[in-house]
Amino acid sequence: MKRILLSVGLAVWLSGCAHHDDVRPSSDGMHTIMLFADSRDAGSKEALRQAKHYCKQTEQVAYVVNLDIIYNSDTPESTYVTQNGLANAVDAMGIAMWIFGKNSVDDAGAALTLSGGIADGALGKPYDVRLNFKCR
Q: What's the total number of domains in the chain?
């Protein structure tokens, strides 16, 4: 049963991976990506990944013109970073318990996994990422 749930979850996760859905092409060659992220690092990596993929379609290379990442939330950024780290830790611990635990341990792991996911979802994605790039 665990393998089935894990396989279904993995399939859903992989099907949600878009290649460059956030690219806004322009006629003057200065393309823009705007997206929301749950961390500065994840946001910049995702934007760069999409820019590279977009340019690769025409056998070109993406050149970053500028990258702006703005934290946009009422919660102080340091508090958000701490809460997000805790939610991710609870989620990871729950997954490990769910997969490797037996009897009530795997039930507790499932509950932790759901709790971590809910907490992460409640925190949202407060980073506004804007990347301007050109393909050459």
A: 1
Q: What range defines the domain where residue 52 resides?
A: 2-135
Task: Give the β-pairing of 31-37 and 127-135.
Answer: antiparallel
- Separation of alpha carbons 105 and 93, rounded Å: 11
Indicate the SS3 state at residue 27.
Answer: coil
CA dist 84 and 67 (Å) reads 23
- The type of residue at 135 is C
Residue 31's DSSP bridge partners are: 133
* pLDDT number for residue 114: 63
Backbone dihedral region for residue 37 (phi beyond 0: left; psi -120 to 50: alpha; all else: beta): beta
Q: The pTM is what?
A: 0.70
